[in-house]
Every structure is written in C-alpha cells, then in structure tokens.
Amino acid sequence: MVRLWLLLAAFAGFSGVALGAFAAHGLKSRLSAEYLAVFQTGTHYQLIHALALFGVALLALQVPSRAVQVAGACFALGIVLFSGSLYLLTLTGISKLGIITPFGGLAFLAGWASLGVAAWQMSAR
Predict the structure, then answer these.
(1) Which spans of this chain does the record mark as coiled coil (predicted)?
(2) Dihedral (C-alpha) 38, 39, 41, 47: value to the nearest 10 degrees?
C-alpha cells in the first residue's frame, strides 16, 4: 500500500501544480474572477492533500494500521470529490456540481480524523 500512497501523492502533486499553472495562464482570460478563485481553491486543497498522502505513505512504513489506510483512502477520495467537483463546476458552468463538493470536504475531515485515530493507537502500543 505504501507504493499506492506514494503514486497517488505524486500524481496529485504533479497534476495539482499543472492545473494551477493552467488556471493562472490558460484560464485567466476565460473564467470570471469568481470562477478562477474557485478553481484555485481546488488546486490549493489538492496540493495540501497530496502532501497528506505523502505523509500517509511515510506513516504506513512505520506504523502499518487500518486507520492509516483509511486516512489515505479518504484523502484520495476527497481530492476527487472536492477538487474534481470544483474543476468541473468552473469548466462546465454546471452549478449543480457544487452539491458534490461538501462530500469531498467530509472525506478530507474523515481522513484527518483517521490520522488522529492512528496517532492515538500509536500511543497505546
């Protein structure tokens, strides 16, 4: 699983930087300032959680546990749902896609909570 978390972290980091550059240079003249800010929020959260996935990979090496695996899965799902919905919303203009975004936020929260559970379990050992 460590390899999977590292690959996902690398992909999320790479694509987050690429999408951020795309927004700054390619979308600046095509999107409203509001939609550009929404797109940038997506890249911001994607990059933060790419680092979180990297942390999950490192932690999985030291403390392999179910809680660490759940954290990684939740972070990856959060990127897809939260950031992905924001990208699609801004590029398509379909505002109903915003309904998906909070589910991504909940996945991020669940990931951080799972990381807390993993930390709690570490101190109990």
Answers:
(1) none
(2) 170
